[in-house]
Amino acid sequence: MIGIFDSGLGGLSALKEARRLMPHEDIVYFGDTGRVPYGTRSRETIIKYSLQDMNFLASHNIDAVMVACGTASSNALDTLREAYPSIPIIGVIDAGARAAAKATKNNIIGIAGTPSTIGSRAFETKLREINGDFEMISAACPLFVPLVENGFISPDDEITKLAAKTHLKNIIEAGADTLILGCTHYPIIAGAISRVIPYATLINVGAAAAEELREIMASRGRVDTNRIGKVQYFVSDEPQGFERIASIFLGEEITDSVARIDIEKY
Ligand code: DGL
């Protein structure tokens, strides 16, 4: 069983890919919808919340965890690994940076993320490790997460296109051919983002991490079988909004399987 967590709906962009790559695996997903967003909070708070999310997932019979949140990955990954040394825990930063480094042709890479992720410079650090010659332009995009959580996810939503144009202005002007969607919420509005930066390759960091997770699961002897895994969804606030937007994004009804938990107990 794979555990996946995010501050809310964003991790679904990683879950979708994990299911496509490993349909036989059971998945337990936690979205901290009662405390979203994480990306505008202090590092201390992000670490505290991430540990509680991890404690909740660890109360299931999990083989590995994906931190499907750029903000938690850039602030809390080391703490989580120290707390759970026997569980493989992968974040989205390294996988996302590797995917962007592979995709760029002109070596100009845009990085979009929450204020906290951009402030941590985690993607820049990793990209510089890969190749010192990349030109990197980063942009904090605080409006994107509330737009996703409130359902403005259509490629034609004017408000989302305007937010994208405003937030990504410097990246567009710099001529980046690759844009890291450094927050897992952002692939959910990839349609609107593409409209304002159509020539750039968009990097879905959750999808990149899902590929690395598949390798980990395979190395642990978890091979493809004919069974279809089950997904259990948990949230920390009213399930209705989550169900509605998740169903649209995943393209399937998930109405019966979302349970609310009290994350403060973990
Ligand atoms: N989806 C998350 C991320 O990848 C967090 C968004 C938020 O809670 O601010 O950064």
Please, could you describe this protein's structure?
With 266 residues, the chain is an alpha/beta fold. The chain folds into two domains: 149 residues, 3-Layer(aba) Sandwich (Rossmann fold), CATH 3.40.50.1860; 113 residues, Rossmann fold. The protein has twelve helices and ten strands. Strands 4-3-1-2-9-10 form a six-stranded parallel β-sheet, with helices on both faces. Strand 9, helix 12 and strand 10 form a beta-alpha-beta unit. The two termini are 20 Å apart. The model has no long low-confidence stretch (mean pLDDT 94). It binds D-glutamic acid.
Which keywords apply here?
266 residues, alpha/beta, Rossmann fold, 2 domains, six-stranded parallel beta sheet, four-stranded parallel beta sheet, 12 helices, binds D-glutamic acid
Second CATH tier, the architecture of the largest domain? 3-Layer(aba) Sandwich
Strand order of the largest sheet: 4-3-1-2-9-10
Strand content: 15-25%
CATH topology of the largest domain: Rossmann fold
Task: Name the helicity range.
Answer: 40-55%
The CATH class of the largest domain, by name, is Alpha Beta
Bound molecules: D-glutamic acid
How does the helix and strand content classify structurally?
alpha/beta
- The ordered H/E elements are EHEHEHEHEHHEHHHEHEHEHE
Radius of gyration, Cα only, in angstroms? Answer: 17 Å
Give the rounded overall mean pLDDT.
94
Query: In the residues, how many domains can be counted?
Result: 2
How many angstroms separate the termini? 20 Å
Number of helices: 12
How many beta-strand segments? 10
Quaternary arrangement of the chains shown?
Answer: single chain
Major sheet attributes: 6 strands, parallel
Shape by Cα distribution: globular
Low-confidence stretches: none
